[in-house]
């Protein structure tokens, strides 16, 4: 039977309306190499405001991850919100899956919009992309905020059981959920105070999966596999735009120590 109503699609429509009312417009950039990038950009840019790039994480598209705080930021910044590759309306036919390539594509979009200086906030996977962008384009990136992203993780951390999920393929199945059960697991890991997950109707979770998680599933898993691949703390590029912060109660303290050591070396 054909589905006649989707709560997820309705919420998506509400976010689109909210973004437009907040002074943003939807823009598609063809990067001419098989890559299409979608980005929300200001309808009118004001030179008196700094440019702020918001980079989303895994899961839903950019609107779902930034929509609830957008109105608080609009008065103070020229806001740019891209969909990363394989999310929303962004995709590529190229084989690259690294956060470095994602960062290059995002920067090309910013250059298309004549943005020469910017600050950025990267959330989760977007934190890895944001860190890479700051390292590659240090002359353009002024300030960096990384949220919920273990940018100092190493490949060995997975093997040593640092994370609650130690198998990369299992992590990919949770982060790109295809069943209500996996989506419940993801919510349990990612929400600070998750609702009683057993009470969430499977039909609502399946609706969300059908709208947000069924396209580019293998490509998204490839993005996840690329993060720890040959990753060593000594090979992580240095950036100067970020300042050290505190670990949350659930943060692996070893990575916080690594950040402190690199800060002492003048990395941040």
Automatic annotation (TrEMBL):
- Domain of life assignment: Eukaryota
**SUPFAM superfamilies membership:** alpha/beta-Hydrolases (SSF53474)
Q: Which Gene3D superfamilies match?
A: alpha/beta hydrolase
- Annotated InterPro entries: AB_hydrolase_1, AB_hydrolase_fold, Meta-cleavage_hydrolase
AB hydrolase-1 domain segment(s): 50-155
Q: Can you say what this protein is called?
A: Uncharacterized protein LOC110417293 isoform X2
Q: Which organism is this protein's natural source?
A: Herrania umbratica
């Amino acid at each position: 039977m054909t589905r006649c109503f989707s709560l997820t699609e309705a919420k998506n429509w509400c976010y689109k309306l909210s973004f437009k009312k907040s002074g943003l417009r939807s823009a598609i950039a063809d990067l001419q190499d098989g890559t299409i990038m979608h980005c929300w950009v200001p309808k009118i840019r004001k030179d008196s405001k700094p440019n702020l790039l918001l980079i989303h994480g895994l899961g839903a598209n950019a609107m779902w991850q930034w929509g609830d705080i957008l109105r608080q930021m609009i008065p103070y910044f020229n806001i740019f919100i891209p969909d990363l590759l394989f999310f929303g309306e962004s995709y590529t036919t190229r084989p690259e899956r690294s956060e470095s390539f994602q960062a290059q594509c995002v920067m090309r979009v910013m250059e298309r919009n004549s943005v020469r200086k910017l600050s950025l906030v990267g959330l989760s996977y977007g934190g890895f992309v944001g860190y890479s962008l700051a390292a590659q384009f240090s002359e353009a990136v002024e300030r960096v905020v990384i949220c919920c992203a273990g940018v100092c993780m190493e490949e060995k951390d997975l093997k040593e059981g640092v994370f609650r999920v130690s198998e990369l393929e299992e992590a990919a199945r949770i982060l790109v959920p295809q069943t209500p059960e996996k989506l419940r697991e993801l919510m349990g890991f990612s929400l600070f105070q998750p609702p009683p997950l057993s009470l969430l109707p499977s039909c609502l979770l399946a609706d969300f999966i059908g709208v947000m998680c069924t396209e580019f599933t293998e490509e998204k898993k490839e993005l996840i596999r690329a993060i720890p691949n040959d990753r060593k703390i000594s090979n992580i590029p240095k950036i100067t735009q970020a300042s050290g912060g505190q670990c949350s109660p659930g943060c692996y303290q070893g990575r916080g120590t690594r950040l402190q050591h690199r800060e002492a070396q003048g990395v941040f």
